[in-house]
């Protein structure tokens, strides 16, 4: 007689009949990982550094499919209560992660928390299905998915700026070695034809991250030992750096000889060629290191073991995720402020003296992925030179939030300017809008340069009615934004640069006048 307890547990044998309960387990795990991918998809779509993320789930599925016929005989888990507890805790944590993500789609801590929770659930289910043998055997494909999670912003910026500086230094040395005069200003190289910037795309970070992913995949594909996998990782990192150094050397050389237009013409072909060389070289290294080890033959006669995953647990996970999704959407819909419709746009001062549009470099367009934007320079009434950039992103464009990591205090020192001070944020009213403007003072080779930076999103809308006096991107500030229902509603960025004002107050006064002319309500 079948009791209620036995009916609540998936007890199947290793046969065709076992595919249905196993499919239920896979469907539940797929639902968990779908939530993670939903959070990461904007980063994969709009941030070129992580576009490879779309391929990682398919590579993980391939590894699972390749390994399945050779799986070891499952064993009964010795401590199933630990796995059950870990599953329950991880599933419960998915609710606050989902709740915070709508207000903070750029918060990479949430990306890691969600991915680690999904890994914990997956590994716990593996342990329940086949004990420690299955946990060790199938763990890699699930952990491999973590390579598609964006690095913490501080780590990424540290590596990016470091590699850009190193690449610039080596290129300057090589140019001077071949009697081409060159000077380094931060991450910008000055040659006879002008200034050449070493952009993030040429820093090696993008290919370094993709190479890191491919190195791990090849290590598992060819069943490398831990020592060989570590060697392959270091070899891939070195190969990525050398290939990108060759790419930037070619682009800088072309720029020094033929000007900036030559860089634009060669940028994409050189990038594609170097990427193919890098990946092919890594594959050849892995083939050279490939051991004479093959997967063991499948043991078709091995007796089956019960899959100890309660149906009630699978149903509970699915219902919890569904309730979380409905609850979060309802919360933000109810709390959506009517001020979310408040818009403003740039009003380019075409009638000002010496007005001239500034072309946005293709590399910057690819990086920022804005929906609307541009730049211009002009001379003010007092003769001072002004420069303005304006960009607008529609809701869901994570690239807009990615720009916060490219603020003036991060990027301009890399171009050779010296940051004198950060004067913080002030609310400046123009055309009926309170703009949260952060002001900086730089030294441009002896000339004072003032930079005024406004990043406008849901938090800025709150600031426009006096609810806050400055941006709060701390963990506490991000949590408060979620409880206020400040969903991401798109973003706008305004950056205004003024040269020659000796006093900060003088520059601030001039900004208030210019802001009335270069912005307008609506949009």
Radius of gyration: 27 Å
Order of helices and strands: HHHHHHEEEHHHHEEHEEHHEEEHHEHE
State the total count of DSSP E strands: 12
User: What would the principal axes of the Cα set say about the shape?
Assistant: flat
Distance between the termini: 70 Å
Bin the strand percentage. 15-25%
Mean pLDDT: 81
Give the tags.
single chain; 523 residues; alpha+beta; seven-stranded antiparallel beta sheet; three-stranded antiparallel beta sheet; 16 helices; 54% helix; disordered N terminus
How would you sum up this structure, described in words?
With 523 residues, this protein is α+β, with helices and mostly antiparallel strands. It is 54% helix and 15% strand. It contains 16 helices and twelve strands. The strands form three sheets. It has a seven-stranded antiparallel β-sheet with strand order 5-6-7-11-10-9-8. It has a three-stranded antiparallel β-sheet with strand order 1-2-3, with helices on one face. Helix 2 runs parallel beside helix 10, helix 4 packs parallel to helix 10 and helix 8 packs antiparallel against helix 9. It is flat and about 80 Å long.
